[in-house]
Amino acid sequence: MGWRGLWLLFAMALGSIASYGQTTVTIGAGTLTSAGSNGTPIYRSSGTSTFHHSKSVQLLTAAQMSAAGVLANSTITQFGYNKTATGAPSGANGFTLNVWLKNSSATALASGTSWSSMTGSATLAYTATITSANMPNAAGYWLWNLSSPFLYTGGALECYIEWFPATTMTSPFTTGSFTWQRTATSTVQAIGTSNSIALPGSTTSYTTNLFHYNTRLTYNPPVACTGTPTGGTAVAAATNVCASSPTSISVSGATPLRV
């Protein structure tokens, strides 16, 4: 490797940044609950309801994210909501769950924009077939380990959730309704729709709600850098070599990297 390549590796090493440990925060402390309402993270009004299709949008404002201490340039690795009652797919029934996340400047949500347009600029962070084997049939926060960790760049955060059958459905379809905990808000922070038939990407009509669903997320915060790192001095084992002769290079006096 030539001097140019060695210096490139050296510069890349100095530019690397290690993260602190993972942090988990909960946003929302309200104790109200919703079941069978459009705009819940996932719609299920009962175990026998044939409304297997739902789409919802959830908004966390910049103020809420800041109050929770989530810094810009944090990487979100888990995301989910508080399901306050038992409820999961029954028997061999399975549902597809898609979750998109999007950095946003929104302060409120509104009906009227197509699902395809909204999710087109979002990141598909989680997708899975949900069955009785991987959905807890118990109350508590259901956290999704994101298949694509999401880089939060600051501001508001929008979450888009799509739910529809992945298998032939047999009643009872779930062991019960899905009941979610929420917090009242002064602006619309949850919208959604549901149906017994597939909801197309052209869907634009959603029920609007003056609350947000209590959210828990896990993230890796960025390292807060201070001062100016010292590049140090490159030291070669041999300084007078032919082009084909091997040598080695090290760095003396550089600022140590945090790992």
Question: How does this structure look, described?
Answer:
The protein has 259 residues and is mainly beta. The protein has 2 domains: 1-18 and 230-259, no CATH class; 21-220, Jelly Rolls (Sandwich), CATH 2.60.120. The protein is 10% helix and 39% strand. The protein contains 3 helices and 15 strands. A 6-stranded antiparallel beta sheet has the order 6-5-8-3-10-11. The longest helix is centred in the first third of the chain and has 13 residues, at 3-15. The protein starts with a helix and ends in a 7-residue tail after the last strand. 30% of the residues are buried. The model is unreliable at 3-19 (pLDDT under 50).
Question: What CATH architecture of the largest domain would you give?
Answer: Sandwich
How many distinct folded domains? 2
The termini sit apart by 26 Å
State the helix count: 3
The mean pLDDT is 89
The helix content, as a percent range, equals under 10%
Backbone structural class: mainly beta
- The proportion of residues in beta strands is 35-45%
Order of helices and strands: HEEEHEEHEEEEEEEEEE
The neighbouring-strand order within the major sheet is 6-5-8-3-10-11
- Low-confidence segments, given as residue ranges, are 3-19
CATH topology descriptor of the largest domain: Jelly Rolls
